[in-house]
Amino acid sequence: MPKPRPEEAPDPVDIFVGRQIRRRRLEMGLSQTSLGRVLGVSFQQVQKYERGDNRVAPRRLLELAKLLKVPVTYFLEGALPGVDTGGDRSREPGLLDDPRTLQLVRYYHKIDDPELRQRVFLLIKSAGSVDWNRPKATAGSGRRTSHGHGRRGRGAAMVK
After folding, report:
1. The pTM is what?
2. What DSSP string runs through 13-34?
3. Which of 34, 79, 111, 151 is the residue whose CA sits 20 to 30 A from 24?
4. Secondary structure (H, E, C), 4-17
């Protein structure tokens, strides 16, 4: 069996499994260091797993599934196109890869006031639906808001 060359890229399945490990670790609010401690490995080893640089052995995958409270199939769902693992297809790829997304969800769920939570939801929904690439109106364009007060609001003077 030939030895892999050091410059050889990681296998796509190893990269996929690593991303799933990272996603779940972030969902649970764990650092690489804390996960490594529980597994008995360094945070660098966890990084290598998450990047797909080091292949995760089946025994380690079972251990990760138990620690991260997911079925072992979680790490493989969608790894190979056309192979049905019977898993959850509702997850949008990459949506939870950004740690800020998970922080946002955690902070949102800490809001106790239902009315405030709804207002925050509507604010985020509104901001997310804006076309930020649309050219902005110039001061003299005469555009009005739905209230008819222009961009500067009620009582603001237009200076030319």
Report:
1. 0.54
2. HHHHHHHHHHHHHHHTT--HHH
3. 111
4. CCCCCCCCHHHHHH
